[in-house]
Amino acid sequence: MVASSAVKFDLESIFVDLSQSKNGVNKHVNVNPKLTSTVTGVRTWGTLPIEAYQNGKPAWLDDKGELIQGIFVNMPDSEYHAIKSCLSSSCLKKFAFDPQKGYDYFLGKKETKEQSPQLKRSMTAGHLIHGHVLEPWLSNYGVKTTQEIEELEKAGFKVLENHDALKKVMQDHDLKGGNKKISEKLHLVQQEVDKSYIYYPDYIESVKDNAGSRFLERSDFEQAKKAAALFVNSSLFARNYKRGGYNELTIIAFDDKTGMWLKARIDRVDDKYRMLDLKTIHTLSEAQVRRDIDDKLYAIQGAFYKRVAELASFELRDMFALTFIEWDECVRYANAYITDRSWERTKIFEQEIYEDFVDWHRTTENKDSLNYSGEMMMDLSFYKLSRRPRVGS
User: Fold this and answer.
1) Could you read off the pLDDT of 18-56 as tens digits, one per residue?
2) N or C end of the chain: which has fewer CB within 10 A?
3) Interacting residues of 49 by C-beta distance below 8 A, sequence separation 6+
4) Which domains are present in the chain?
5) Distance from the first to the final alpha carbon of the chain
6) Whole-prediction pTM value?
7) In contact, 32 and 45? CB cutoff 8 Å
């Protein structure tokens, strides 16, 4: 599918010092990496994974801020997403059916469309589960939630549950609130009675504001953690996620043929060098799993990972699987393997999308539709109408 960038090694660099990464998960990390060059002059750390930080500096960037090809462990999620002018699977999936939207994503333009509360909830829960399964040494993966009143009181705060509780404290201490705002009343109580008083509704809003999109209600937060814990203690986890391999493996590679930099962040490469991606799902059923893989282009994501790995000369098994976790009302999980036939077709589609993106990127004219301009003949399937129940007389 892709031509690899051949790497020129000196003899000493072949005999690398391998050891386990400091986080205890990623195995076979080159602890004495050396910068070399590909035959086309691209600087590279070679074909073995290395720590993302070397001597305290980002190993994926040189002193001028230019990218270096390599395979990295322990790169923070935020740093990966901050890498600009680099094609990713997220970009390619957006581009597949909306080229301008995908290219805007590539250019770093933020989407203006607000996510629905349901989508935010689902994505944040998935992010939390992701962290607890793949990078458990990171504290809740940046997801925030509120503490219960009892927990705040144990921490030394005096919690006013609602406006009535605030008014009662003012009455008990003969404080005149009148028509003051709640914030002014609270400030008065803190000044005249005890500065440790907090107003619980304000506390909840402040946590939400500070967390931004990474906020979960307490019940959802606990349920997501429970789902992650149950999965981590399962035989499925032991077989696929516990034995060696790499978690959150980042690959940055240069495509000599297209002149483009590509990046991939693979959830899991197991001890047999198989790629797995961790997904949350609303209902774990065969039909829903198939629908999610099709609609959300998850298989395209895997084919792109394989492309980037080949460019970096990092050998992975020619296959892709996804672990789906249902977390909400009940906890269930299963692995879904892409069949060989579907995988081969996926790679063909991914190649087409990649070629289209490169063409779009190279062309300077403004294009706002996949078809440039023209007419289309639509042969309808009538999928929805054919399932409409008829009304009996």
Assistant:
1) 444 555 566 678 889 999 998 889 999 999 999 999 999
2) C
3) 26, 28, 29, 30, 71, 72, 73, 246, 249, 314
4) 7-110+234-362 (3.90.320), 117-145+215-227 (no CATH), 149-211 (no CATH)
5) 59
6) 0.82
7) no
Q: What is the pLDDT of residues 237-288, one digit of tens each?
A: 999 998 889 999 999 999 999 999 999 999 999 999 999 999 999 999 999 9
3-state secondary structure of 142: helix
For the chain, strand residue ranges (E) read 7-8, 18-19, 29-30, 36-38, 43-44, 50-51, 53-54, 57-58, 70-73, 158-160, 197-199, 246-255, 260-269, 275-281, 321-326, 332-337
> From CA 70, how far away is CA 50, in angstroms rounded?
8
Query: Residue holding tokens 């829903």?
Result: 288
CA separation for the pair 90, 351 (Å, rounded)? 15
Copy the structure tokens of residue 32: 């004495």
Q: Locate tokens 């063409």: which residue? A: 359
